[in-house]
Amino acid sequence: MEVYEVFVQRRKDEAAMHVGSIRSLTAYLALHAAKEVFTRRDQCYRLLVVPRTAILATADEDADLFSLAYSKEYRRPEYFIHKRLTGSSRMG
Amino acid sequence: MAGCPESLMLAWADDEYVVGQQLITLTGMYGPDLEEAIAIGSIGQDHLGHALHLYRLVCPDELTVNRLIYERETTAYRSCHLCDIWRPDDWAFIVVRQLLYDLADYERACWAGRFDDPWPGLTGMMARETRLHIEHWSEWCRLLAQDNYGHARLVEAFNITWPLAFDFFVAPEQVPDSWSACQDAWVEVVQAIFGAAGVPIPEGTPTAHIASGRSGRHLPELAHLLSEAHAYHLSRPAWQWE
To answer: How many angstroms separate the CA atoms of A32 and A39, rounded?
Structure first.
């Protein structure tokens, strides 16, 4: 019995969104179960299931790796525009 | 091509109605896992949706549809014995019965596409949904056949449902002769699927039932199902939805 993550693509030009997970014996049954559980009411263009073991994810302890990004202002586009307008240098 | 004979429409609608009602009684309550317990409800709803399409073709208005569904005697139903029989606590039985029924229903839908509008569009939709059900149940059949216990349960369920399945093909009145070819096509695909699962299929076909479900002679399970399903309506027959 494996866990599969389910993604629903609502329209052809939209990205697939994660909607939940399914436990199943085979990938084929997982797709069927996902259809019955997750596409009962809303519109769905395409349904995808991915075994959770196929997904690489960061660990919970590494969540602060992403929060440090806010101090890296030089990565944001408006940092350099602001520098040109004011003529001042933030680096100096 | 003319329209579909009304006797066939009613038998078809009754088949789908009975199977749908049986499946939805299990929603959330029984299945090898939670996902199947949910899926079985959706699959039952698909069957009920087909039944409703067909009842609406038979009846002039919604009130008559209600009367036809809720106020007929059991003997007035035209569902076949394969649909009547019901063993709700036996997953192997459910898999085998659904697979045999859906395979036959698929042949019926493909055959009925020859009639005039709205049949091509309607049967196209029903055949597609039935095709998905077939994939689902045959995957389960394949899984159950993988170990000795599952295989034994499959064989037991098959031996119960196989003789009853031929009642499906008893032709209601006024049905064209081309209908009989559906049974041959069905036997072939059943042999392929159940043969692959290692389920032995008896030689020859069972003799036609004199007491056919198509003439209103039903198995006891049907009366039990209908009395339970219709109890609410019959206790308040004059009520309508606002």
So the answer is: 10
Complete domains list, chain B, with CATH: 6-203+211-235 (1.20.1260.10)
- Out of A1, A26, A40, the one facing B42 most closely (by C-beta) is A40
- Measure CB to CB from residue B43 to each of A25, A29, A36 and give the nearest one: A36
Pairwise CB contact (< 8 Å): A40 & B143:
no
Does residue B132 belong to the interface with chain A, where contact is any CB pair within 8 Å? yes
If you measure CA to CA, which chain B residue comes closest to A41? B42
B156 in contact with A, Cβ within 8 Å: no
Residue ranges per structural domain of chain A? 2-86
CB B96 within 8 A of CB B28: no
Per-residue pLDDT 10s for chain B (242 aa) are: 577 888 999 999 999 999 999 999 998 887 888 888 888 999 999 999 999 999 999 888 888 888 888 889 999 999 999 999 999 989 999 999 999 999 999 999 999 988 887 888 899 999 999 999 999 999 999 999 999 999 999 999 999 999 999 999 988 778 888 888 999 999 999 999 999 999 999 887 776 556 788 989 999 999 999 999 888 888 887 776 65
CB atoms within 10 A of CB B194: 23
CA pair distance B95, B99, nearest whole angstrom: 6
Q: What is the pTM of this model?
A: 0.86
Name the fold adopted by A2-86: Ubiquitin-like (UB roll) (3.10.20)
